[in-house]
Amino acid sequence: MTGLVEHGQLFIGGELTDPQGREVIEVISPHTEEVIGRVPHASAADVDRAVVAARRAFDEGPWPRTSLAERIEVVTRIKDGIAARHEEIARVVSSQNGSPYSWSVLAQALGAVMVWDTAIGVAREYAYEEKRDGVLGPILVRREPVGVVAAVIPWNVPQFVAAAKLAPALLTGCTVVLKPSPEAPLDAYVLGEIAREAGLPEGVLSILPADREVSEYLVGHPGVDKVSFTGSVAAGRRVMEVAARNLTRVTLELGGKSAAVVLPDAEVEPVVEGLVPAAWMNNGQACVAQTRILLPRSRYDEFAEALAAAASALVVGDPLDPATQVGPLVAERQQRRSLDYVRLGQEEGAKVLAGGGRPAGLDRGWYVEPTLFGDVGNGMRIAREEIFGPVICLLPYDDESDAVKIANDSDYGLSGSVWTTDTRRGIDVARRIRTGTYSVNTFSLDMLGPFGGYKNSGIGREFGPEGYAEYLEHKTIHLPAGWEG
User: Of the residues 253, 369, 400, 470, which is catalytic?
Assistant: First the structure.
């Protein structure tokens, strides 16, 4: 992305319209610290307009009443439009949030395409209506769209998370008000353009970049039937509190402090090859990042040395350089937060094995070296709190039971992995960890499997039939005895 990108209008109900307010969001490059874009800051009045448009489109418009085949046609055009412009989208996202371009192509853009495509497949196979033999007679069980959805997305993987919410919402027949973060609103304009060209009817989709105050107004709006939120635990609690006033349904995908358990029989090379990208993905700004790596005491030094060497070898630099593996953090506050945790970890008695400061030669930009702490106790704050930066902890354990205990001793339960030469043993460990997704000898996120968290990592699920169902209401129709239709 080159030059200053400016948008003077908001995407409301499928059309670009003038905002009600005069506030502007300035998008800052995390690499240059310079302004790279400006967009209108949506106001409460803009939220009212968007919700009214979505309400009318759902209650009176054609979208919920079109056939599934027709909705799939439109959504397929959205998916194809994103695929055709995936390199452009990847550049925009990397410019906004510092994601390495190579990672943005695969995860931010093509990953989003995969989410859309998988949701289309789920929609085709889903049972929207079924007849059952009830206790008192035949019944018909229907699944119907939940209504107007407020989809609030974060800055770290904006297109991927938008797809996780928009695809099932649109396919089920819902209408949506999408709220991008103020740090990463530019790619949402590309998405809006693609959606309009795909032929979404009037009112079905609005996109409103805004801060937390306006987000809270949207979440608490009486015209909204469901909120789907991805973000921090603190923000998720507030979303749930505000939505509860109207008994609005919520899906919350929140933070993580995921544990990767390396068993004593694991081989060093595949562990390093698998865990380094899983730990430092997206500059450490990923809720599923493997931020706690549990190592057996019997082989602790061997694994720690290899992981430290790999962390030190990661290429840090301009996110738009294809060679970059770790880019800058999204904002100065995130850089400061990570460096504060580095200081705190040292004060707590942990040992810096790699990184620990700003990268040499990168005095401009919000950079933090890929940092690896050794000798971390699970009671330390660096092991318990989500840092959301490139700071990873190594924790020693005594035996398998101790490893499982440490992995489960967390307020979070979103992701995790186990590494071993014995896959059956790995599956047994996976069954014992209280977390929403888990990987054995790999790190993966499959769009056909339900994704979400235990404990403070969230409520509800995204992806697969389970995530699709989050956008549907269940209705029971009681039928007369003997009816065989």
Answer: 253
